[in-house]
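hi! just following up on the protien thing from before. the input was this:
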Amino acid sequence: MNHKKIKFLNRYYWKWFVFACSLCFTATSLAATTVPGGWVEGTWTKEGSPYLVEGRITVSSNKTLILEAGTIIRFATQSALHVYGNLKCDGTENEPVIMTSNLDTEWYTDSLPFSEAPYPGSWGGVYLAAAENEIYLHHLKIHYGGYSSSGALWLKEGLFTVQDCVITQSQGASMVVSTTADIQFNDLERSRDGIHVLGPVNGEIIIKNNRIAEQAQFPFLIENPFPFPHIGDNELVDNGLRSIGLTGVPFFLRTTFKSVCRRFTPSIYSLRFFYYGRTRTDNSIRNGF
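and the predicted 3d structure came back as:
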């Protein structure tokens, strides 16, 4: 076999080798773990990502779902995550846990065409009612989740620490809080409201050192605020209403809440009290106390 023929064959086989590798890469990039609606538990990993959730999935009261760093979960329309047991979210700064719409192409490598772009409320969000557990959520990103009545992340029952998380583009609030929670160093953007405290609350809520930006309405919406949450040192940027929205507050307690808000939220421009279907604004709570 002459030298030119050997050179030709080497080039020929090399092209086929490159083509075969590209097929393997494509197959790997398109690989996913499909999760139908129903009960879930165990450990979800970066290697098994993306997880395609096709319905509402539920962690029962005696089970645990572990989300390792780098895990990507894509939720179909009308799907959601409900947790009555334990949820461990072990994201890191460089490899967060990501929950997003299956229409969102930002967080995975395949390039399958979709008929529409992701939108706020593309899926149902995360509902946590783990009364017997203390849950830590660190470096979790939630995009496009939550309906107007629920929000992207609803802390319903239990003890929660939510830190270094990012929540964007919910149809409702970025976060709904109805129980004891420590909420610090999070980035909440482009939802209807930032944090909706839905009281009365049996416990203490701390909301500090968060960035709340570009909400369509309130950075804080507080309903039946008993006891009043500890709010302070938050960065508020370009929100539609530079106010605390307060509902369920009797008229004779307005002065009390003015003093509380002056103490904890000096960056709030005003209070808006909602009662009997009407809104009143008290402009005495201004920036710079």
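Confidence is low (pLDDT under 50) at residues 5-9, 17-30, 266-270, 273-289.
The radius of gyration is 24 Å.
cheers
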